[in-house]
Specification:
- It is built from 8 helices and 5 strands, in the order H-H-H-H-H-H-E-E-E-E-E-H-H.
- The protein has about 240 residues and is α+β, with helices and mostly antiparallel strands.
- It folds into 2 domains: about 45 residues; about 190 residues, Roll (Nuclear Transport Factor 2, Chain: A).
- Strands 1-2-3-4-5 form a 5-stranded antiparallel beta sheet.
- Helix 5 crosses helix 7.
- The protein is globular.
- The protein starts with a helix and ends with a helix.
- The N terminus is likely disordered.
Length: about 240
């Protein structure tokens, strides 16, 4: 692959030299400069981080696996399979840290690190609760969209992460506008994982952070109220 690229580059350089030696007009010089520029742009275009190239395939693979499991009859065994698949798909630890402002969502002005205000036992507690809640919510949403076609609309960089853009179209309502769902994918020590879900422009992590910050600053609520509300949502029947 590299040898072919080098050969093509050598041919372009030789063409420029020939044109420069045979022509004396400024337009020829400008043409050669453009050839060199196009070559440089081509080199830059392929210099994409490996995880950015793989992020969309990662989302597609994980979704296919989850949909296959969810088409099985409802049972505790199926739910256990879904949880196991989600555990490999979602980075709950990173999602929890981001939900408490470490790091802050890029769109949040004046964001503070709430995570630094929690001790280790509190971090473990909210991490476990958020894991349960995200599992529950994501499984519920997947069941609702099993009759949807998912279109993958590309990727873009988001502060070192990769944003995978998708649209979900209800097959029974083809004239309705599709629902946009984006996945924020990061490279972790265990490989690619999802650290946030963005539905119609609304970030799950950002929404959690806004709620948690409000409660942490309310002397009548604080951390105990965050835990109570998370437990309440987990226990609530769908």
């Amino acid at each position: 692959m590299r040898k072919g690229h080098d050969a093509g580059e050598a041919e372009r350089i030789e063409a420029c030299r020939t044109l420069r030696s045979e022509a004396t007009t400024p337009p020829t010089m400008r043409f050669c400069d453009l050839v060199t520029l196009w070559s440089a742009i081509g080199l830059l275009a392929v210099a994409v981080p490996a995880h950015a190239e793989d992020a969309q395939a990662f989302i597609q693979r994980e979704h296919a696996q989850l949909e296959t499991i969810l088409h099985k009859p409802d049972s505790p065994a199926r739910d256990a399979e879904v949880n196991q698949a989600l555990d490999g798909f979602v980075d709950y630890g990173e999602m929890t840290r981001r939900a408490f402002g470490e790091p802050c969502h890029p769109s949040l002005a004046g964001c503070e690190d709430l995570w630094a205000q929690l001790d280790e036992s509190q971090r473990r507690e909210v991490g476990d609760l958020l894991k349960q809640l995200v599992r529950k919510s994501y499984r519920k949403n997947l069941l609702k969209t099993l009759n949807y076609d998912i279109a993958y609309k590309g990727m873009k960089d988001q502060g070192g992460d990769t944003r995978v853009i998708t649209e979900a179209q209800d097959r029974s309502k083809p004239h309705d506008p599709p629902v946009r769902v984006d996945y924020i994918v990061r490279q972790s020590d265990r490989g690619l994982t999802a650290a946030d879900f963005v539905t119609e422009g609304s970030s799950l992590v950002k929404n959690y952070y806004t709620q948690f910050r409000t409660k942490m600053h309310n002397p009548n609520e604080g951390y105990p109220n965050i835990v109570a509300k998370l437990r309440e949502k987990i226990a609530k029947k769908d």
